[in-house]
Each structure stands twice: as C-alpha cells, then as structure tokens.
Amino acid sequence: xxxxxxxxxxxxxxxxxxxxxxxxxxxxxxxxxxxxxxxxxxxxxxxxxxxxxxxxxxxxxxxxxxxxxxxxxxxxxxxxxxxxxxxxxxxxxxxxxxxxxxxxxxxxxxxxxxxxxxxxxxxxxxxxxxxxxxxxxxxxxxxxxxxxxxxxxxxxxxxxxxxxxxxxxxxxxxxxxxxxxxxxxxxxxxxxxxxxxxxxxxxxxxxxxxxxxxxxxxxxxxxxxxxxxxxxxxxxxxxxxxxxxxxxxxxxxxxxxxxxxxxxxxxxxxxxxxxxxxxxxxxxxxxxxxxxxxxxxxxxxxxxxxxxxxxxxxxxxxxxxxxxxxxxxxxxxxxxxxxxxxxxxxxxxxxxxxxxxxxxxxxxxxxxxxxxxxxxxxxxxxxxxxxxxx
Length: 390
Prior knowledge:
- The protein folds into 2 domains: about 5-230, Spore Coat Polysaccharide Biosynthesis Protein SpsA, Chain A, CATH 3.90.550; about 270-385, UDP N-Acetylglucosamine Acyltransferase, domain 1, CATH 2.160.10.10.
- It has 8 helices and 27 strands.
- It has helices at about 70-75, 80, 100-110, 150-160, 160-165, 190-195, 200-210, 230-240, and strands at about 15, 30-35, 40-45, 50-55, 90-95, 95-100, 115-125, 130-135, 140-145, 175-185, 215-220, 225, 270, 275-280, 285, 290-295, 300, 305-310, 330, 335-340, 340-345, 350, 355, 365, 370, 375-380, 385.
C-alpha cells in the first residue's frame, strides 16, 4: 500500500476479546494484524467483559527489533495474549474485506480436533500466482502447501478434487484451488510451541512447517473476500461498492457493519450531479459532477469539478474560512478534472488541476504524486498548485 502506508504502521495489533457468543467460543481471543496505531483500550459496555486493546509496535528490554513478520508480531506481544486462560486464538488480517461468521470456523476447528485451522478460498487458475495454495482432501486435513505456484506440474497436484468440490457444493468440472486467506485458529499450546521458534511469518513459515507434524485443517469459505493490501486491490474493492448491486454490500440487516460515530453534520449537496457515488458524512459538494466515486468524510468539492472512477479520502478536519491564503484550501478546487485516482486525506487541490494516469507508466514517482498499478495517487497533505496537469 505504499505510498499510503508511509505514515501508518502496518503491524500494530488490535486484540478483541468477547466478540464471540457465550460458551466454548467465549474462551477465544481474536488477534487482528494491522490497522491500529498507538496504545489504547476500548470497553464495549458496562455489562460484559468484552474489550479491544490496540498494541502498537514497540521496543522492549526483551527485544529491540521491530516486527519482522506476522508471527513475530504476535510473538512479541504474547505476554499480553497469555494473561488470561484462553483456549483458542483467532488470528485475522487487517487489510481484507469480507464478512465471515467466525463461529462456524471455530466449530469446525473443535469438531475436527485440529491443532490449527486456516480459512481458504476457492480461486481460479489465473489467480493462484497471487496466493499461497493449500491441498486438502474431503476430510479438510491440509497435506500440501505451495507459495504462489507457477509450475504446471505443481498446479495439477494442488487442484481441488471432484469429491471435495461436490461436498462444498461447487461444480465438479471447475478447476479451483484453495488459497490461504491469512485467517488462522490456533489451540493455545500449539501457538505457544510454534512461536518458540525464530520463524517470522505465519503464511510463509509457521503453517508450512506445521503441516508436517500437526493436524492442520482447512475451513473452505465461499463468500466474498478481497485482499486490499495493494493500491490496485484497494482501489477496485472500494469502487466496486458503488455498483447498483455490489457483490459486497454494507446493507445487510442480519450482519451489519459498524463504523466509528463521528457526529458530523449530514453532507450538503449544492446542485451536483451524482452517479454511482458513495458520499460520507460532513461533505460539501457544489455544482460538481461525480461518477463512480467514493467520497470520504469532510470532503469539500467545489464548483465545476469532474471526478470519475476515483476515491477521495476526505479530511481530518474542516477549515472553512480559516485557510492560509498562501496555499489552496483543503479539498478539490474549481473546474478540476480527476480520473482513476486516489486522493489521500487533507490534500489541497487548487483550481483547474487535471489528475489522470493516462499516458504514464504504471508505476512512477514524482515530488507530489505517485502512479501505482496504473492509479494516480495524491499523498496525504499534498499541495497541487492551480492549473497543474498530472
């Protein structure tokens, strides 16, 4: 996700306790990799023991190195995770978009008597080079693993069997492979034993070595799932949400997605034309044309601007009437044209700016913008002067 990750730590770890129902599942600690910053604790309410702790990367007398990988990040924080007698540890990734009932994952883990269970997603042949690919039988026990395979003979061996496809309700004639989703359940003692080694990463090191001498099981997930750890994936997953009937929807009454309440005013639209757009709270949009766009909180888009196929991340604060006259105000200026771009927070785009990756190499670095995977990226707090063409 560079350049967006320049100011955001990837491997700070929020941990979630009590996010699962009572009984066996309540003895589970969820560890979410990535997405946190700082050290804070949040309690859900006064009537349960549920809480969220955010553990940032840190250096201690016991270890002066920063996190070397996902397994090392958990290892360096084990003193927190072992404070209470949890039986199971659910390890999640912070840069994915999906909706999963973790109760089903944990029930299968317990039912099959597994040491480790990892979620897998059936993918087509053209996608296998992007993932670690697992091999399992109808009993779900994983017997093989190849990281991003490209060899044809390896692929033939890793293909899901007709029997397994039939059991999970897929077409037996399909050519599908099990891709690791980076979602793991560990038994307490197994996690402790696995992390006594010097291995750094779950997907690259811990799981492949565990397959040899432990019961590692696959939980096959067939719902929507996208890894948004790259600029292109982040861009496409966000814009897909603007479809009339998106493959992933936030409008699911039985499994809602909650966001942080910011108590901002409703967005104000002054004569704009909107088509397939998602507008967040606290925005002011005046006589602009927006088509297939996601617009973040506190965005200000001025008259005559045209924005297509783009993500505007918004702003951390409103500065209406308080901006320094020596620089453009935060937001999108008058008569700007923006296409296939990500505008990060607090960017100041002056009047008459044109931003598009058209005619540029797929990856390119400049002083105040980047091209990544064919997407123009304006970094946080960037200033683009009037009339500038990107």
